[in-house]
Every structure is written in C-alpha cells, then in structure tokens.
C-alpha cells in the first residue's frame, strides 16, 4: 500500500454533495406532495363522494317516487298514451336511482380497498422520508468532513518542499585514505 495519496481535486466530491442536497430537497417535496394527495383522496372518498352519492340517492329516490305516483295517477285516469309516457319516466328514474346506488357501492368498495392498496405504499413513502430526513443529512455532513480533510491534505502537501525521488541506493561514502 502506498503511504500517500495523490489528490489533485475535490471537485467531483463537491459536485456529488451538491447534487445530493438537491436530490434530498426535491425528493422530500415530492414525498410530501404524494402523502398529501393520499390524505386528500381518502378524505374525498370518505367525505365528499360518500355525502354526494347519498344525497343523489335521496334526490333520485324522490324523483322515482314522483314518477311512480304520476304513473299511478295516469293509470287511474284510463288514458293509455299517458301511461306509456309515465312508464318511460318511471323506467328512466329507476335507472338513474340504480346508477347512483351503484356509484355509492363503488365508493364504499374504494374506501374499503384504500387501506389495503394505498396505505402500504404510503408507509414505504414514510420510510423513505425518514431516510431522507435522518440519514441523508448525516451523509452530507460526512461528505463535508471528507472534503475538509482532503483540502487540508492538499494544503499540507502543497506547502511541503518538493522531495527528490529516490532513484537507486544512496552512494556509500568513500573510505578515507591516510
């Protein structure tokens, strides 16, 4: 092994350190955005969408019941043409009600599956975030120390006088003749 190293530049380490800092900041921002979107989506499903489709079911149920009442009234009046239009209205409102009920079932299925499908990935994102907040700053500090040590080494190396390289065995002094 060599007793010394030849360090001519710390540029690559410095660039890597700067790129690592940028990566950590961008990755943390992205992870925060993703986790916020996960929370918003869960709230949207459990809150807004559930409320919306429950209200739609109530509204469409009322329309369906009104259409049924109009069909009943038309049948009592005895006009066949009126009952045909009223039957079509009943069928249309029934399909609309069934669609709203199906949407609510779908929302409930998404809510049920949300925890099993999305939360494991969100937990991995949290783990990555903890690495980015815990280990990466330590790595950046370590790179700082490496840079300082290498810069100190190059300063000491540059301040030393240039040593001749040993080419061969030093010559032995000639014996004195008396």
Number of strands: 0
The CATH architecture can be named as Orthogonal Bundle
Summarize model confidence as the mean pLDDT.
86
Low-confidence stretches: none
- Give the ordered list of helices and strands: HHH
Global geometry: rod-shaped
- CATH H level, superfamily name: Methyl-accepting chemotaxis protein
Give me the CATH fold name.
Answer: Helix Hairpins
Largest sheet: none
The CATH class assignment is: Mainly Alpha
Head-to-tail CA distance between termini:
47 Å
How many separate domains make up the residues? Answer: 1
Radius of gyration: 39 Å
Structural class: mainly alpha
> What's the tally of helices?
3
Strand % is under 5%
Helix amount: over 70%
Q: What do these coordinates show?
A:
The chain is mainly alpha-helical and 178 residues long. The chain has one domain: Helix Hairpins (Orthogonal Bundle). It has helices at residues 11-77, 80-117, 119-159. The longest helix is centred in the first third of the chain and has 67 residues, at 11-77. The protein is rod-shaped and about 150 Å long. The two termini are 47 Å apart.
